[in-house]
Amino acid sequence: MFDAYPEYIEEFSIEIADFNPIGPTAHISLPETMPKRNNGIINIQNNDDWCFGWCVLGALHPVKVHPERNPHRLYGDFVEKLNMDDIPIPVPVSTPVYKKFEENNPEISLCVYEWHNQNKCLDFRYVSERRGEEYKQVNLLVITEEERSHYCIIKDLHKLVYNHSKHKGQKYLCRYCLHVYSAEKGYKEHLPKCKSLNNAPQRPQMPVKNRSIKAFYNHKCMQPNPYRIFWNLEILTEKLTPEEKTKLIHTERLQMHKPCGYCYVVVRMDSSLNYEIMSYDLYRGPDALERFVTKIEKEQANIQEDLSAPAEMILASGDLKSYNEATECWICKKPFIKPSQEALQKFEEAKHRLLEVKEWEASIGEDHPEKKKIQKEYREALSALNRKVKDHDHINGKYRGPAHDTCNKKLRIGSFETKVPLICHNFRGYDSHSLMKVVSKFTVDKLNCIPENIGKYKAMDVDQLRFLDSF
Ligand SMILES: [Zn+2]
Ligand SMILES: [Zn+2]
Q: Which domain of life is it from (predicted)?
């Protein structure tokens, strides 16, 4: 067998691995908290102290395949083009050094960032003052590990911040202030305004013609809430039992605050701020909180019933005359405008169709298939006219004044929508905490609150009920 030799060779390959030992002052791997893949960073594997230089060259002369390997071979030809006069090697993390470097190389705009391990975000180290397309942008990342520093190239800042928000599309990041934009338009608008890190971007916007007047538009706030409830809890402090004390690990708790009573007053108010007490309750005894919830729910049902039947309009003598003569809406203070011919014609058509439906229903004796649609069209045509209507207080029935149809609707009271404020003294500091324990007992599916911390609430919306502090 020893003198046997192959007749032919099908394939022959030699694989040679590059032996490139990494020196202690050279390459450092990326911090643990940094995105591992597709992070837009090129971490050059140099074995000398020249990582700053290699990074700048790598950013200026990008290589597609393995840009991190063997910088001597990839970027060695360009070393001469970099002016490193008076710059210490290895390049320290220091602003004057970066300034000197920019001075030496007038075509480069340099930004250096650090990775913040705790917050998992980028921090500034140095931001260039050179703006504009004419400069070659170089973005570097400096990572520090036990007295050693190492520079990497940030090839794509956008990729590095990809995980910073829920927006998973292309992001546009300002390299001077790290503000992120999800749309290119916003980013392009920002760039000329950006005054870099310590100067927040601002753009003076002068009022333009026709849009220079600020006025009150929130007309629905002109009307006070028809109902409000004033309430308070009475709370006793009880000593903890030995079993309850053993449950405690860190904090020493001595006593427990236990609600022992409540009182409330339901007040109804009309728009002239005349009020009357509709009902009240005072209770002292066990299960005070649970009872309070049940009682308040009953009061809410009564309020809804009352609000669903608004008072009939009461016209005083002279009201009708002043209504007919009025040329201005009492709510928005704007004149009544004659509806356009087109709107009038639309209204007439809708009215005619609705009459047809009614006739059809009267003769056939069943619901018209398109009744709802036609009714909706009629309502829309009617509100498009924006006629003059009589506005009246739904609580006391008094006529308030002539109003636009749309303005009148803004002051509408909804029996299930209009909020009922429940006002309590020091709700924020004390009673909200107790109320939170029973809030699940309310038969509602909508809960909303403005929390101050985990156990303190400024305000709380339990469906139609709005718990507020009297302060
Ligand atoms: Zn900016
Ligand atoms: Zn109006």
A: Eukaryota
**Per-residue pLDDT, 251:** 66
Distances (CA, A) of 326 to 70, 314, 372, 387: 88, 18, 35, 12
Cα 377 to ligand 1 centroid, rounded to whole Å: 50
Task: Based on the fold, state whether residues 298 and 443 are members of the same structural domain.
Answer: yes
Domain with 73 in it: 41-193
- 21 has pLDDT over 60: no
Same-domain check for residues 84 and 157 = yes
Give the ipTM of the model, two decimals please. Answer: 0.60
Q: Does a structural domain hold residue 180?
A: yes
With respect to residue 165, please indicate whether it lies within any of the assigned structural domains.
yes
Which of 369, 402, 435 marks a domain boundary? 402
* Residues 113 and 259 placed together within one structural domain of the fold: no
Q: Rounded to whole angstroms, how far apart are CA atoms 291 and 95? A: 68
For residue 457, give every residue at least 6 positions away whose Cβ sits within 8 Å of its Cβ, in sequence order, or none. Answer: 427, 428, 432, 436, 449, 450, 451, 467
36 within a domain of the structure (yes/no): no
Tell me: do 50 and 114 sit in the same domain: yes
SS3 assignment, position 291: helix
Between the CA of 144 and the centroid of ligand 1 the distance, in Å, is: 26
**374 CA to middle of ligand 2, Å?**
27
Give the number of the ligand closest to the Cα of residue 177.
1
Shared domain check, 348 and 305:
no
Q: What is the pLDDT of residues 79-124, one digit of tens each?
A: 888 888 888 877 888 888 888 888 888 888 888 888 776 667 777 8
- 260/332 same-domain check: no
pLDDT over 60 (residue 23): no
In this prediction, residue 8 carries a pLDDT of 80
> Which residues have C-beta under 5 Å from ligand 2, the single-atom ion?
329, 331-332, 404, 407
Task: Give the pLDDT mean for 252-279.
Answer: 87
Distance from Cα 143 to the centre of ligand 1, integer Å? 23
Report the amino acid identity of residue 206: M
Q: Are 87 and 100 in contact (CB under 8 A)?
A: yes
98 and 175 in one domain? yes
Angstrom distance (rounded) from CA 151 to CA 71: 13
> What average pLDDT does the chain have?
83
| Residue 108 bridge partners (DSSP) | 136
Nearest ligand to the C-alpha atom of residue 406: 2
Residue 227 domain-assigned? yes
Question: Domain total for the chain?
Answer: 3
Tens digit of each residue's pLDDT (9 = 90 or more) over 281-314: 999 998 888 899 999 999 999 999 999 999 999 9
Q: Are residues 305 and 326 in the same domain?
A: no
**Cα(195) to centroid(ligand 1), Å:** 7
Sorting pLDDT into bands at 50, 70 and 90, what band is 197? low
pLDDT digits (tens, 9 = 90+) for 368-399: 888 888 899 988 888 888 889 999 999 999 99
